[in-house]
Amino acid sequence: MRLLWLCGAAGLVLGGTVSVSALQSTTKNATVKAASESRPIRIDNISDWNTFIAEFRRAVEHRDKRALRSAMDVNFRYTFERTAGGDPRDEALELWDRSGSKVWATMDQVLGKGNRNDPEVPGLMVCPPAWVDDSRYIGYRAGFMKVAGSWRWIWYVTGDY
């Protein structure tokens, strides 16, 4: 089995070979995967979209708030309403944590539906594609733009504005 380590900051791909038995141990009722060693990756300086979205999805899956915050634009939008005036990145992450696992599961689902360019806003990538394909779509959606050469998460909202 071939494992690939992606290092977005350096743009390197390093390969290593391990045996499948090193990654899995089978028990009577289930297969248990042993934790593989991972290297932290910064997602705030990735310029390649495919690398960025893969690492972003991994950060959401692991609820890695530090990595997610680093990818959030300083003017991040998580609501259409006025906010208290603090850092919107911290406010959003705190709100999602207080709201429980359903918020994170929904975010996983939204990202899992794919992405596409918004033809009305040059450079804007959106998840899910329904945001640009269906004029009646008002569900959760995420927006991303390249800022100073790196991808930034600029909003995650629901509803109609």
Please supply descriptive tags for the structure shown above.
6 helices; disordered N terminus; two-stranded antiparallel ribbon; 161 residues; five-stranded mixed β-sheet
Determine the mean pLDDT: 78
Number of discrete helical segments: 6
Largest sheet, spatial ordering of strands: 5-9-8-7-6
Q: What is the first-to-last residue Cα distance?
A: 48 Å
- Helix-residue proportion: 25-40%
Sheet with most strands: 5 strands, mixed
Percent of sequence in beta strands:
25-35%
Net shape:
globular
What is the H/E string? EEHEEHHEHHEEHEE
Would you kindly provide a written description of the structure presented here, covering whatever features stand out?
It is a single chain. The chain has 161 residues and is of the alpha+beta class. It is built from six helices and nine strands. It has a domain at 72-157. 32% of the residues lie in helices and 27% in strands. The chain starts with a strand and ends with a strand. Residues 1-37 have low confidence and may be disordered.
